[in-house]
Specification:
Elements lengths: L12 H35 L9 H5 L12 H41 L5 E6 L19 H6 L8 E6 L2 E10 L2 E9 L12 E9 L2 E7 L2 E2 L17 E6 L3 E5 L2 E2 L9 E6 L3 E5 L2 E3 L3 E6 L3 E4 L4 E12 L2 E4 L5 E11 L3 E3 L3 E5 L10 E11 L2 E10 L10 E5 L14 E6 L9 E4 L4 E5 L3 E10 L8
Parallel strand pairs: 1-2, 2-4, 3-5, 4-6, 5-7, 5-8, 6-9, 8-11, 9-12, 10-13, 11-14, 12-15, 13-16, 14-16, 15-17, 16-18, 17-19
Antiparallel strand pairs: 20-21, 21-22, 22-27, 23-26, 24-25, 24-27, 25-26
């Protein structure tokens, strides 16, 4: 029931005032209590799950989690929830840190494999180096070339240079399955004179299935009898420089002077899609300077030099190019084609002089040229003979065709050539080439001229 104020004046005014004041105080307290209760109920409603009524069971339900676990107090349940959140956060943070570490490790691995884009990777090798403690830097070089090669990333956008200090490195170095913008293996010093001993000596270097520009510069190749590994193909075929299914390899300023004459050695050997080009190399007493096999391509530079070699360039189902006319390399057989190989030499022109006269008793002078372009030979010579026999069947031997120009043996026994003379020729005057590649003529006394052409299968000569 509500409190009522006194309205009638049948009691004293002072007492009525006091009583009414007390009633007003009580009414204020009551109003504040009502508001407090409403606030408490609102807070309880916010704490109780699914609160929809006055049942105290709602408070009990608030102490039960989604898994059905009942806690003694709502605080203990909330505390457990906080601890679970903290635990989950810590676990997630640990996983994130672990994944970040794995990502950093992966980035490091990719960096190791790929190298820094566009940068130059320099690795140093010295006889004072160490493969265990060295890192390839100039201050801590490797001991062997192979150790430096093994440090090159498998895939790299860098330009790699291996710098080698003076010394003999009797290694069969193999560069295998690498892809780089360029890989250069070179003398630490700049080499220009290859006619004398070089400071860096190596046994063999092989490039196998490696892509990008490659170069070997300023090295001397020794210990050729002990070549092994990839540079030792079969039988006694051993190669100082070997390239298989790789890109272009430049061989510059190198020296090949250990005597391999009559053996199966090759200074340069390319097979498959490999290509080799040379510049300023020196070859002396070598069995074979270069061989291109099975679609490979080798170009011998006119800047190369050398003497006393047996084979020059062999094209065995491969291709080769050598400018014979300008070449400074001397070999018994400067170029030889095998199977379906092909060699381009440019025009080869040899002067014919008195030294080439076959019948020195009767032929007094010979001069002119013999030219080979591919497998076609053209001859144009003048000869002088003042002692021709009257018997037309008795001819004079003018010259023996030099090696590298001899006729194809599939020709008939006698290959006719044109004969010209200012005066009238006697009846039956003629010129030709015998089966033995000897140019013969029957003509009147005086000067006569012989010209003509034929096909040769002779090994290409050096002139």
């Amino acid at each position: 029931m509500d409190l009522e104020l006194l309205e009638k004046n049948n009691i004293s005014t002072e007492w009525k005032k006091t009583f009414n004041d007390n009633v007003k105080v009580l009414l204020g307290w009551n109003q504040r209590n009502v508001m407090t209760v409403e606030t408490i109920n609102s807070r309880i409603d916010n704490l109780v799950l699914h609160s929809g009524g006055d049942s105290p069971n709602e408070v009990v339900d608030a102490r039960v989690n989604v898994k059905g676990t009942t806690y003694p107090t709502l605080y203990s349940r909330l505390l457990a929830l906080d601890n679970l959140v903290d635990s989950n956060y810590t676990e997630l943070k640990t996983r994130q840190d672990t994944q970040q570490g794995q990502l950093d490790q992966l980035n490091d691995s990719i960096g190791t494999l790929m190298g820094a884009y566009g940068e130059t990777l320099s690795l140093y090798v010295s006889k004072n180096g160490n493969n265990q403690t060295g890192d390839g830097s100039e201050s801590k070089p490797f001991l062997t070339i192979q150790a430096a090669v093994n440090r090159i990333p498998l895939l790299t956008s860098s330009r790699v240079t291996i710098w080698i200090s003076d010394g003999a490195y009797l290694e069969d170095v193999v560069v295998r399955n690498l892809k780089a913008v360029s890989i250069t293996i070179r003398n630490l010093q700049n080499v220009t004179d290859t006619s004398s001993e070089l400071g860096v000596k190596v046994r063999s270097i092989a490039f196998i299935s490696s892509l990008g520009y490659q170069q070997i510069n300023g090295l001397q190749f020794v210990d050729q009898a002990n070549i092994s590994s990839a540079a030792y193909i079969s039988g006694d075929l051993k190669c100082a420089i070997y390239s298989e299914q790789s890109s272009y390899l430049g061989v510059w300023n190198c020296r090949f002077a250990e005597n391999t004459f009559g053996k199966g050695n090759r200074c340069l050997f390319a097979i498959g899609a490999s290509k080799i080009g040379t510049s300023n190399n020196f070859y002396q007493n070598q069995n074979c300077i270069a061989e291109a096999r099975n679609l490979a391509d080798i170009v011998i530079s006119s800047k190369d030099k050398g003497t006393g070699n047996d084979y020059g360039l062999i094209a065995d189902n491969g291709a080769g190019r050598v400018n014979v006319a300008d070449s400074k390399v001397r070999a018994n057989r400067i170029a030889e084609v095998r199977n379906q190989g092909n060699i381009e030499t440019g025009p080869i022109i040899r002067q014919i002089t008195k030294d080439d006269i076959s019948d020195r008793e009767n032929v007094t002078d010979v001069n002119g040229t013999i030219k080979r372009d591919g497998n076609v030979v053209t001859v144009s010579i003048m000869f002088e003979c003042n002692n021709f026999p009257s018997d037309v069947s008795n001819t004079r031997n003018i010259i023996l065709v030099p090696a590298g120009f001899k006729r194809d043996q599939n020709y008939p026994a006698y290959h006719a050539l044109a004969l010209y003379r200012n005066e009238s020729q006697p009846a039956g005057a003629r010129a030709g080439m015998t089966e033995a590649s000897r140019i013969v003529a029957y003509s009147g006394n005086g000067r006569s001229y012989i010209s003509g052409s034929w096909v040769t299968n002779d090994a290409i000569p050096i002139v």
